[in-house]
Amino acid sequence: MRDKLRKWREDNHRNSEQIVDVAEELINEHASKLGDDIWIIYEQVMIAALDCSRDDLAWTCLQELKKQFPGSQRVKRLGGMRLEALEKYEEAGKQYDSILQEDPTNTAARKRKISILKAQGKNTDAIRELNEYLELFVGDQEAWHELSDLYINEHDYGKAAFCLEELMMTNPHNHLYCEQYAEVKYTQGGLENLELSRKYFAQALKLNNRNMRALFGLYMSASHIAASPKVNAAVKKANVKYAAWAANQINRAYQLAGRGTKENKCSVKAVEEMLESMQITMS
Amino acid sequence: MGEVELSCLAYVKMYLHACLFPRCSVNGLLLSSSPAGGAVCVTDCVPLLHSHLPLAPITQLALTQVDVWCAQTQQRIVGYYQANACVSDCSPTPCALKIADKIAEQCNNAVLLMIDGGKMSPDYRVPPIVMYERKDSRWTLKDKHTIMLRQWEETREIAGQLLDSGDHSLLVDFDSHLDDITRDWTNQKLNAKIAELASPANAEQQLKAM
């Protein structure tokens, strides 16, 4: 059980309901056997409890942690998170401000303040604060990704692409960033962006040939380029080839998936027909 | 404009979709198996995304695939639903309006449904939904009295039951399907479970509509 909790911590899983289920039994019955692990488990459980609106459990964990680590900034931050969960945003903000007064480099507190803005729907403020944060803490991957998400929600695709470029530079083997970047480019539209999107979908596939989004993305971007009146015959021919290859791969993947299960006969057929219909509009 | 009826099946799946991803905005399509003309009967829904709703490629892909599936099963896309991650604001986002516009091109009494996250707790006795219809090329709030949910109490109970039993995790949206294509976004299994829980009279109605 404690191994499971450790794995969830390390993989950063947000399976809060599961954690809460496991935790009560663990804490009540086996506390003595957990040794020093118990403190980090209290922290993990408290955050999960906040996620599940279990303020009773969260409060218990917080008290134990406060007793053991009085004056700790890490515990103070947890206190702030509890206030956030109760939607007492002003108090939470003050809590984080006091942490930052003692230690202006505390990134956790700064990020929590930005989360408050996001929770209140103040997206433009959150974006501004996050930009300021990233000027100081340029290497924070999580922050770059959060910023790209915020920009996508504000439909500012150019800036979202910039954030994803930063992430791709520092994580060249991550197929998900490539694929997201390609999606943003596709959404921006226009021939140049479509070609870029096709290239990055292809790159994502190179890094992970089972990424279905990238495969579909490659198919769609290549098809749209081939159907565009602005491309010359050679480019058209090349893109028709890419699209055909992608369609083939998609069909194969669905045939494999459809084997033996009655359920996805619908989706297999739907994909086949869709690919056929799109081919007709292309030629 | 006209009356809109929302079936138990459609409501329950939409509701469960929103519950399955409480931290994300989710969206989906509303379908009807009734012929065009007269009142709009939403008989089913297809949950689509729970991430990056404004991005185009997957939405386009999903719309095309659902279109094809509808043609195969004699259904039509008659609307769009969305639940925003931020509970305090349930107004339609630009991407919701865009997709709803596209649907309205093919179906002239299409509806746009926003789920009001703030009203989803068990102590609210009314459906936590806000519906919009197209009037003079703008999406305007629909009169509550033209929206019908037959057997609302029962529907609410079924949704609650599935949530308590953890069966809401059976729901597959298009995003999850792309993560694992063996999962079925038409949700036949969940549909069967919902039909089972509905009263015999309702179950017959659902089966006729499917």
TrEMBL record, chain A:
Q: Which domain of life is it from?
A: Eukaryota
Location (main, coarse): endoplasmic reticulum
The EMC2 TPR-like domain covers 77-185
Name the InterPro entries for this protein.
EMC2-like (IPR039856), TPR-like_helical_dom_sf (IPR011990), TPR_EMC2 (IPR055217), TPR_rpt (IPR019734)
Keyword Repeat in annotation = yes
Mode of membrane association: Peripheral membrane protein
Q: Where are the transmembrane segments?
A: none
Carries keyword Chloroplast?
no
Q: Which windows of the sequence hold TPR repeats?
A: 141-174
Instruction: Could you list this entry's UniProt keywords, alphabetically sorted.
Output: Endoplasmic reticulum, Membrane, Repeat, TPR repeat
- GO cellular component terms, A-Z: EMC complex
Q: Where in the cell is it found?
A: Endoplasmic reticulum membrane
Read off the Gene3D superfamilies from this record.
Tetratricopeptide repeat domain
Q: Which PANTHER family match?
A: TETRATRICOPEPTIDE REPEAT PROTEIN
Q: Can you tell me which family this protein belongs to? A: Belongs to the EMC2 family.
Q: How is the subunit organization of this protein annotated in UniProt?
A: Component of the ER membrane protein complex (EMC).
This chain's function reads: Part of the endoplasmic reticulum membrane protein complex (EMC) that enables the energy-independent insertion into endoplasmic reticulum membranes of newly synthesized membrane proteins.
Instruction: Give the protein's recorded name.
Output: ER membrane protein complex subunit 2
Classification of source organism: Eukaryota, Metazoa, Chordata, Craniata, Vertebrata
UniProtKB/TrEMBL annotation, chain B:
Q: Where is the MPN domain?
A: 4-138
Give a GO cellular-component term.
EMC complex
What highest taxon heads this organism's lineage? Eukaryota
Please report a single Pfam family linked to this protein.
UPF0172
PROSITE patterns reported in the protein's UniProt record = MPN
The similarity comment for this entry is: Belongs to the EMC8/EMC9 family.
Q: How does it assemble?
A: Component of the ER membrane protein complex (EMC). EMC8 and EMC9 are mutually exclusive subunits of the EMC complex.
Protein name from the UniProt record: MPN domain-containing protein
Its source organism is: Esox lucius
The upper taxonomy is: Eukaryota, Metazoa, Chordata, Craniata, Vertebrata
